[in-house]
Design a protein that fits this description.
By secondary structure, the protein is an all-alpha fold. The chain is 82% helix and 0% strand. It is built from three helices and no strands. The radius of gyration is 15 Å and the shape is elongated.
Length: 93
């Protein structure tokens, strides 16, 4: 597995963290303190790590059958697409 990442992958990870934190803060309501922001940031980072880990499974399976070296960028892109689908389902439903 290749663990080097493009700059665009770092941007996607940052966008996913900010998106997860936004939905946590908005869901908490208006009375949120500084410690609430820190907890939502920590939970957002954990959620993004879990999302990247779960999206690595289909990447490994696909790369095994295609005989290609798995790359971490593929997992980041899949997690980013899943985040965009989540945003779309939150906005349009």
């Amino acid at each position: 597995m290749d663990f080097r990442m493009d700059k665009s992958s770092w941007g996607m990870i940052g966008f996913m963290c900010l998106t997860m934190m936004y939905f946590l803060v908005v869901g908490a309501g208006s009375a949120i303190t500084f410690s609430g922001y820190l907890m939502s940031l920590g939970l957002a980072i954990i959620v993004v790590i879990v999302l990247l880990a779960l999206s690595s499974i289909p990447v490994f399976i696909y790369c095994y059958f295609v005989k290609k070296i798995p790359d971490l960028d593929y997992s980041v892109r899949l997690a980013f697409v899943l985040t965009l689908i989540g945003i779309g389902s939150e906005i349009f439903m």
